[in-house]
Structures are given as C-alpha cells and as structure tokens.
Fold this protein.
Amino acid sequence: MLRNNGIAIFKNNHFLTWFSNEKSKGLDYLTGPISESVGSFSCPGGGEIALELAKYDRDIDIKIIDGKPDVTYNFKLVTSISEVDCNSLDLSLPSSYEKVSKNAEEEFESILQDSITATQELKTDVLGVGQQLYRKHPNYWENVRDDWDNLYKDLDIHVNVEIDITDSGNIINSFSTKDG
C-alpha cells in the first residue's frame, strides 16, 4: 500500500521543505486538474462530513493594478456527501446543505491560502503564477522576471471558493444524531 504523507518542495533542484498533507492537497488544487478527491470538513454543531468531488473548475485571473500583479483564484466545486459523522445536522432540511457548504468553503479557502502563503514565504513560485503572468501580460513579465522571487513573496493572491452540494446519495443523517 502506497501512502502519501506530504510533498517535497524544491527550488532550482535544491530541497527546501516538506509540505504537510493538508498543504499538499491545497497545492494540488492550485496547480493542476483534479479528477477525484474526497475532503473532510467540520459540521455545524460539531463532527465531520466528507464531500466527494464530482466536478471541479479553477480559473486564475491576473490583472495589473497600480503597476503590481493582482491574482485571484476562483474555484467552483460540485460535490456530493459521501460520509456523515455530525453531532446535530438534519440533512432532510435544505438549510443544512447551505450550512455545510458555507463551512466547507471557508475551510477549503483557508487550506488554499495556507498553501499559497507557504510558497510565498519560501520565495518559490511552484504555483506557476509567473508563467500565467507571462501568458497574460508578457510585456510586464519581461520587466519583472529577474526579480520575480522577491515580487512573488509580496504578491496579493486572493482565493474565492464556491462549493455546491448536489446530493447526499443514500445518506440522510449521521448515526451520531440518533438516540440509542
């Protein structure tokens, strides 16, 4: 059995550090297409709920504002509930889906932002923001390419996450909400 417990970060073929499993997952979402994934998130009222990815869209918007790149990652995830271990969540109510979705969006946004911040602290653009900047604003890139590592560490990178929960399969409620 192969088990991944993080990812190594390199710069110019030199090892910098290990990213935790959570930061590695954030890095995966920020850099590449994801076909399958399951994530655990906090339930309103305690416990955890697992969301399984059905569809994933990522868009990177780069604008030059006041002579500086402004980067925004926009994520739209379509998920379904795969496991429920919540203390007090009634999945027969539509409002419960909204609460779970909001919690998951906030937690996922935090994971992504932590991954971004970690790469900026290392002054290593493993996300490929510079490459996207080159594609969208080649003239600007030519002016900053030699100092990109320093510019990258201070870059404003925003993350917007929208999670749509389409269904819960056969799951209605957690066993932990039952008396017994």
